[in-house]
Amino acid sequence: MLAVLAALLILGAGVAGLAGLVATGNVNVTSASRPENKYTGVLAPYACASDADGDGVDDQTDILSAALRYVQTKPVYRSEYYTGGYPDDGCGVCTDVVAFALRDAGYDLQALVATDITEHPDDYGPDAPDPAIDFRRVRSLKVFFARHAAQLTCDVHAIDEWQGGDIAIFDSHIGIVSDQRNENGVPYLIHHNAPSQLSYEEDVLEGRDDLVMHVRMGCE
């Protein structure tokens, strides 16, 4: 990727032009390479008994693996409306990391959120429901996960309570917790935050002050 950026600069795109290409998604600078696991301590093994899609792989492992597969497709950060709900053009935003990860584990977040809105409309605010976009809104997912997922600690230093495949929700952002950790044992985050993001899997949990929910889907 650095070679591509250098070539664009040499060809005359210029810094401002290159920034414009990144901002519009015409150049994807986000790497799907996984960071090194830096934690050398020992954590108690965690076992999840649920398997929503019946594939013989527990939900926690399924969700984590699916999130990693999704970012390996190197989605371009772009906020668009899709009549079918799930993006089908190689683009996406933060909520799509979670939606695709859960779908591949047996949880159709689009259908689940639509059902929850039908059953609890007052909890989701005055906007008319739109199944094509509701499940891709962080504010909707906060309401949904508060009711349908296990609520866990937001203390990122309680490292034994964080597992790969968990979901971290911020004021206006969301991502999947990685199974790789920094030197303090705090896990990395698999997420899609901006066109200028350098890696889909980053050591950001300790540096953010807007974490509002930490949940686990299916597994208690």
From TrEMBL:
InterPro entries: DUF1287. It comes from Collinsella tanakaei. This is DUF1287 domain-containing protein.
